[in-house]
Design brief:
The protein is of the alpha+beta class and 388 residues long. It is built from seven helices and 16 strands. β15 (219-228) and β16 (235-244) form a beta hairpin. The protein starts with a helix and ends in a 10-residue tail after the last helix. 13% of the residues are buried.
Length: 388
């Protein structure tokens, strides 16, 4: 336990000495910062510079040699959590390391600037560099009132007895840029009746320029554009809905009409597009089917017309003597074509006569049997053929 305790105490003392040395070094640096500043330079740069852009030549402006920067291990010391700049010791230049946004860095404070130190060792030198960030017109105006919402419509009321110069509403907008980039102007871009309203150029106030008459539309729609004074200028658009009415319930009815008209127009457009798509699809499908059927029939007719295959007749097995052992020296085949009423026709043949002729030959017993079997077949009421 004793050796372990002694080792722990030695480690604690060693750490304390290290902390004391670090504190002494920091005090020396602070002493140099507050009392021994060898040089100071200022640079004025625009915000939003690209990474790697050159701010200035530090070695030339401070009168330092490039070998001194390398041998003194020149580096930047800054209290900011983000190091916006970087020192290139091989060229002696100061470049942008991170994007500098004036609004994010300083907010509404003008002028916007920040400082850092370049430290060299052996011997120690301290040089302060101050960067003044100039504002750029990188932000468009933001409309605060009327609030632009996608799901609802806000309407202002104007009584029918309103005189000339009646204040309808005021468009309120801000620009986070500074200087002349934040100067805003208001213009009336579109209106249902441009002869009824006007917008103040500097204050954004919407006023009547004549008395309201009964012929004026109840629903008025104004489009106001807000521009800043930057180069190039940026703008924002705001839509103001105005209802000419004398009472609040009337305003509510007109307000619902605004929403209803918008939804109705959206639904009507959707259904028209859908109907057009369906009709076009059905028309194209029918056209393809008709053309396919026409081509198929034409190809079938061409195949039948150009066919050169021989026609092989079909002979029923009952009417061909394949053995050739009867009284007839050759095989005979018969085809009989009958109409629907052929059984009642006058063309009839006696069967008994044919039997007598065949019976006269004593050697035709086999043929007689075959004739009798064929007779039984022909005597059937639905038989399609007759043979003799």
């Amino acid at each position: 336990m004793a050796p372990g305790g002694s080792l722990t105490s030695k480690c604690a003392r060693w750490r304390a000495l290290q902390g004391l040395g670090l504190t002494i070094r920091m005090l020396i640096i602070l002493f140099h910062v507050t009392n021994v500043v060898d040089g100071q330079i200022r640079y004025s740069i625009p915000e939003e510079m690209k990474k790697g852009s050159v701010i200035g030549n530090v070695a030339q402006d401070l009168g330092l040699d490039l070998r001194r920067l390398r041998s003194g291990r020149a580096r930047i010391v800054s209290g900011e959590s983000i190091q916006y700049t970087e020192l290139k010791t091989d060229k002696g230049t100061l470049v942008v390391n991170e994007r500098i946004d004036r609004e994010e860095l300083c907010g509404d404070v003008t002028p916007c600037s920040f400082s850092f130190e370049v430290i060299l060792e052996n011997p120690m030198e301290l040089h302060r560099i101050t960067l003044i960030t100039q504002d750029q017109n990188d932000n468009p105006p933001q409309v605060l009132y009327p609030v632009q919402t996608g799901g609802s419509v806000v309407a202002e009321m104007v009584p029918r007895a309103a005189d000339v110069g009646y204040l309808v509403t005021k468009v309120v907008a801000v620009d986070v840029d500074s200087g002349q980039n934040a100067w805003l102007s208001y213009k009336l871009q579109k209106a249902t009746d441009r002869a009824l309203f006007e917008v103040g150029l500097q204050n954004g106030e919407i006023r009547t320029i004549r008395q309201v008459s009964d012929k004026d539309a109840v629903k008025q729609r104004l489009t106001v554009i807000v521009e800043d004074n930057g180069q190039p200028s940026r703008s924002a658009t705001v839509i103001v809905n105005v209802v000419v009415a004398d009472s609040f319930p009337e305003v509510l009815s007109e307000f619902s009409d605004f929403t209803h008209d918008k939804e109705y127009n959206d639904n009507l457009t959707f259904y028209l597009v859908l109907a057009l798509a369906v009709v076009s699809f059905l028309f194209i499908t029918c056209l393809v089917v008709i053309i396919s059927v026409k081509i198929y029939r034409w190809r079938q007719s061409r195949v039948m017309y150009h066919s050169n295959l021989p026609v092989i007749p079909y002979y029923p097995p009952r009417y061909s003597d394949t053995l050739g052992t009867g009284t007839l020296p050759h095989v005979y085949n018969y085809e009989v074509c009958r109409t629907t009423d052929s059984r009642r026709s006058d063309c009839k043949f006696g069967i008994a006569g044919s039997q007598n002729v065949l019976i006269m030959d004593p050697s035709s017993t086999g043929t007689m049997q075959r004739i009798q079997s064929e007779k039984s077949i022909l005597d059937e009421p639905d038989s399609p053929l007759e043979a003799y």
